[in-house]
């Protein structure tokens, strides 16, 4: 039987069509000898900030390139290109117009497949933000929706971005709920912003999206969480991909990028509030939403290392994309290249340790207050002066996913309190713990008052 040639079907091609024009160009010498390095990033996909928004605002890449230029006698210029999703970044990379890009795990696999098909191979060289349980993706519904569980989505319209990590979460979650993603729901393939508008207009019954859309809509009071992606207990992450030709011919420039990414990671960890406010300023997102994901106890952990758990997750993602007809196969081992990071960064950036804590962000403070229990957070909120609470965050009692305390579903059990991202999770807890009860956030705050 003749071996099939690796192909990306028409559904994926629609996602990967390059933009009509690109600013700047690939790494090549201009007339004056200057080498342009073009970086594609997603400003509002805030778990890529250490390779995108935050990195750009800090100027670390430019600094590292200047230092590299003194070593190799080259003058460099950086061009930053901002996109809403990873698909157009891949299109521009395979057209030779972007040298370095950052995107989520499912788009990374499409990046690998498309690069191989067009003979413009790419390599995964580092990670940015990740959640080992999958908490970066969430399915949400409109406020007041009668939908309570994933099973309720049967026959409903669900907006997502096909080929994205959020789509992968949706597919897996529906299957675990006993639904056929291809037959039992009407999937709407939409950009995140379009999907958010569709949810608000009622033309979509639910929205499955990646960071930071679920948190943003919840913060704005425009959505309620239906499914916490961490219930899958499968890692999801974002990473940095590079054109193989660029990595080979401009190894020094790639090393400079990875050193700069490490510095940005260290900065985010050392100054999480200031970093969140910086990203908010650059993106227009509320700082409270950025901090939900990127804060000291945020949903994401930032570490450039290509951890074994993340690479194993990539292997598990391939069949999902294959079944969706988006790829025929992806050689993950050939796509991953840890050598540049090992060469460029000698000291690893250690991930945070321990379980997530509750946090309180008060107006006028440069930092947040951390609490060991949800009850302690409630008591602190009760004691705070009126109008002084900027944001309160609490981890889900089962998955550990941080969520806005005033958007979480609270359960009281005697004098103790627990919070859950979704009502379904709270109801499961109550069903297994006689005497416990679901309570409104305001009632929980009053009850916990010292």
Automatic annotation (TrEMBL):
Keywords: Signal. Residues 90-273 form the SsuA/THI5-like domain. It comes from the Bacteria. Residues 1-29 form the signal peptide. PANTHER family: ABC TRANSPORTER SUBSTRATE-BINDING PROTEIN, ALIPHATIC SULFONATES-BINDING PROTEIN-RELATED. This is Nitrate ABC transporter, periplasmic protein. The lineage of its organism: Bacteria, Bacillati, Actinomycetota, Actinomycetes, Kitasatosporales.
């Amino acid at each position: 039987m003749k071996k099939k040639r690796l192909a990306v079907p028409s559904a994926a091609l629609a996602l990967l069509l390059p933009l009509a024009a690109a600013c700047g160009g690939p790494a090549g010498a201009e007339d004056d000898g200057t080498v342009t390095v073009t970086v594609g990033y997603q400003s509002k996909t805030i778990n890529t900030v250490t390779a995108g928004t935050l990195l750009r605002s800090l100027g670390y890449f430019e600094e590292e390139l200047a230092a590299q230029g003194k070593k190799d006698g080259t003058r460099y210029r950086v061009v930053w290109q901002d996109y809403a999703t990873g698909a157009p970044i891949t299109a521009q990379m395979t057209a030779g117009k972007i040298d370095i890009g950052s995107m989520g795990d499912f788009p990374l696999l499409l990046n690998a497949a498309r690069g191989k098909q067009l003979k413009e191979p790419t390599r995964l060289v580092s990670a940015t933000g990740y959640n080992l349980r999958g908490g970066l993706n969430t399915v949400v519904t409109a406020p007041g929706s009668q939908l309570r569980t994933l099973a309720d989505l049967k026959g409903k319209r669900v907006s997502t971005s096909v080929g994205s990590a959020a789509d992968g979460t949706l597919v897996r979650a529906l299957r675990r709920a006993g639904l056929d993603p291809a037959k039992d729901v009407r999937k709407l393939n939409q950009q995140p912003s379009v999907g958010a508008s569709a949810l608000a207009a009622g033309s979509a019954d639910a929205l499955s999206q990646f960071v930071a859309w679920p948190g943003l809509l919840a913060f704005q009071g425009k959505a309620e969480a239906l499914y916490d992606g961490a219930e899958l207990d499968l890692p999801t992450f974002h990473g940095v991909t590079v054109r193989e030709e660029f990595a080979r011919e401009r190894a020094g420039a790639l090393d400079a990028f990875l050193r700069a990414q490490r510095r940005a990671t260290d900065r985010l960890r050392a100054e999480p509030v200031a970093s969140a406010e910086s990203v908010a300023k650059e993106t227009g997102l509320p700082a409270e939403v950025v901090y939900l994901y990127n804060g000291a106890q945020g949903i994401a952990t930032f570490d450039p290392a290509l951890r074994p758990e993340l690479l194993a997750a990539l292997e598990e993602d391939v069949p999902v994309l294959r079944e969706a007809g988006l790829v025929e196969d992806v050689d993950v081992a050939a796509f991953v290249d840890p050598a540049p990071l090992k060469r460029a960064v000698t000291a690893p950036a250690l991930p945070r340790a321990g379980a997530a804590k509750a946090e309180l962000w008060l107006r006028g403070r440069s930092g947040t207050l951390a609490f060991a229990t949800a009850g302690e957070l409630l008591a602190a909120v009760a004691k705070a002066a009126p109008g002084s609470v900027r944001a309160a965050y609490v981890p889900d009692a089962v998955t550990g996913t941080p969520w806005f305390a005033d958007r979480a579903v609270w359960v009281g059990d005697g004098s103790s309190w627990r919070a859950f991202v979704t009502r379904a999770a709270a109801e499961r807890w109550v069903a297994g713990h006689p005497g416990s009860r679901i309570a409104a956030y305001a009632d929980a705050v009053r009850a916990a008052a010292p």
